[in-house]
Design goal:
Elements (H helix, E strand, L loop, with lengths): L4 H4 L2 E4 L1 E10 L5 E11 L2 E7 L4 H8 L9 E4 H8 L14 H21 L3 H5 L10 E3 L9 H9 L5 E3 L7 H10 L2 E5 L15 H10 L4 E3 L5 H7 L6 E3 L6 H5 L7 E3 L2 H4 L2 H14 L2 E3 L8 H13 L39
Parallel strand pairs: 6-7, 7-8, 8-9, 9-10, 10-11, 11-12
Antiparallel strand pairs: 1-5, 2-3, 3-4
Length: about 350
């Protein structure tokens, strides 16, 4: 039985849908906005979180005079059919991928509500055991001369913290050497699949070769595979992982070579059936997985941690508690691995 089939016939009764906007300054240097989706039915409430990146899309959603009618009696499968047939944007989104993010928000809220109404947990319904979750802290380095401050300050407070970092051509040989000496880097995200964004990095073979000569025993995420860079990466192919281009199993099939690892971001996959199909496919093919976040501010963070605990608890999961994304992380944050906090009912990580 497929993973989606295990939840498809769950009944859900939706009487009302409401929205709550969240906002917070995060370490990537921008003001993050998200929208919490609340679905009420009987004496239960289900929660999801829309992680669309553009503030105007959240403002338009929260000001929408009348959402599409999503109330009624459904199964999870029939509710997903409905959500995927209606337009959840009052105006065209800034980015097309945001449609997947919003579908994820509404379907995850319905799944949470259905499980709570049935008195069941997600792991119980899937007949899976949650495990403690390994995580990394994903940040960008600062500007010279304090380029390493974001790493060093976090290591001073949390000596066992692991990192996912975004290399840039400004990284000097000294910076690379000091990062290597920390032994704390698990993943390097080259951002090679982005175009026209603030985080684009050049497809410069010399840049790739210099970084990988200094820090090579790590996961190499989203390289830009020009012929020259592909040649540099040949010895490291079993360390290459993919993230930004993974929206479906079709995207995994389209990769330039069989992957050792992929980042399955629930919100990027979007529909529940697409997400669970990707989990099933990777397990069947022996493809490693890890999870990734989207600067969630509310219940969405716990939900991706919950999924990581079930499907890929030991990977370099980019699902650190949200406090690590603050410009100055507070004291007392949970450390890796996160202990299991799966709720006894619903799709919640308490």
């Amino acid at each position: 039985m497929s993973t989606f089939a295990r939840i498809a016939d769950l009944p859900v009764e939706i009487e009302a849908v409401s929205l709550e906007g969240l906002g917070e300054d995060v370490s990537a240097g921008f003001h993050r906005q998200t929208t919490v989706i609340s679905m009420a039915g009987g004496d239960q409430v289900g929660l999801g979180e829309d992680v669309t990146y553009d503030g105007e899309d959240h403002d338009a959603l929260q000001a929408w005079p009348e959402l599409p009618d999503l109330t009624g009696s459904f199964t999870i499968e029939s509710f997903c059919d409905l959500v995927e047939s209606v337009d959840l944007f009052p105006a065209e989104p800034v980015r097309e991928v945001s449609r997947r993010y919003r579908t994820w928000a509404f379907e995850s809220a319905a799944l949470d509500l259905a499980l709570r109404q049935s008195g069941a947990s997600l792991h119980g319904r899937l007949a899976m055991e949650p495990h403690p979750v390994n995580f990394v802290c994903s940040i960008r380095l600062g500007d010279p001369p304090d380029q390493l401050a974001p790493v060093e300050s976090r290591l001073a407070a949390y000596p066992h913290l692991r990192f996912k970092l975004d290399p840039t051509p400004e990284w000097s040989d000294e910076v690379l050497e000091r990062l290597h000496e920390t032994g704390a880097v698990d993943s390097l995200d080259f951002k090679g699949l982005y175009e026209g964004t603030e985080v684009d990095t050049p497809a410069d073979p010399e840049f790739y070769a210099r970084v990988l000569a200094a820090i090579h025993d790590v996961w190499i995420e989203d390289p830009k595979l020009t012929p020259e860079i592909d040649e540099i990466l040949l010895p490291y192919r079993d360390r290459v992982s993919w993230d930004a281009n993974i929206h479906s199993v079709a995207d995994i099939d389209a990769l330039p070579f069989p992957p050792a690892m992929v980042n399955i971001k629930p919100s990027r996959l979007g529909p529940l059936r697409d997400l669970f199909h990707a989990y099933d496919t990777c397990r069947a093919r022996g493809i490693g997985m890890y999870g990734g976040g989207q600067f969630e501010l509310g219940p969405g963070r716990g939900q991706i941690q919950y999924l990581a605990s079930l499907f890929h608890p030991y990977g370099p999961n980019d699902v650190a508690p949200t406090g690590y994304n603050e410009p100055e992380p507070p004291a007392g944050l949970p450390e890796s691995p996160l202990p299991v906090q799966a709720s006894e009912t619903g799709f919640r990580w308490e």
